[in-house]
Every structure is written in structure tokens, then in C-alpha cells.
Amino acid sequence: MSAAPAPCATRSSLTTSSKIIIEVVTPGTLLRVAGRLDARSAPTTRSVLHEAVDSGDGELVIEMNKLEIWDGTGLGVIVGTSRRARQSGRQLVLTGVQARELRLLRVARVTWTSSVRPAALVG
Fold this sequence. Notes:
Helix content is 34%, strand content 34%.
């Protein structure tokens, strides 16, 4: 009888700054973002998200229910990741999106090209 792999065998956690944490649950497929995505955390966050787009195929799911606050630069990271995913033949799926961020995503037209699931409908 073989033992099942540990549930966190494929998990790694990357702290990009004191304000944001990105957990890579399944490389290239599933990430969790928590904290504050703003001008200070944007460069490293952008690199991690773009690497995830480039290293997988199909849907890229980003769980955002613990993402607290964004500014315009943080929104730009999500818009750029959406664009990069689309150009790579992938679809960005944003889950657990809070009401404030959902409004920003609608204004930025991210909802036109990506699947966005509001927090109230998740889980």
C-alpha cells in the first residue's frame, strides 16, 4: 500500500515584500495572492505572475480573496498579466475578487478577456 503524497508537496511560498505574499500552489496553474498589491510590491509580483503564465498552459487561476488594497500600479500588474495570458493562448481566472477590486477590473475591462469570480460566489 503506497502512501499518498503530502498535500503540500507541490506548494512553495514566496514572500515578495512585507506587504504581499504569493503562494504558488501548483506551478503555472494556481497561485494565491494575499496582502497589498501596490507600487511597492508590483515589480516582484509582476515577475512571479508572468513566470506563472509562461510556465504553464490552459487556465491560470489566481485566488485573490485575501488581497486587501490596490492602487493603479497594482491594477496594472493584473491587466498586464491578463494580456500576457491571452497572448500566450491561456485564460486568466481570478477568484475571490472583492467588490472594490471587481469594480476596478470592470473599468479596466479585464472582465472582458478573463474569467472573474467575485468573492460572494466562491466556495
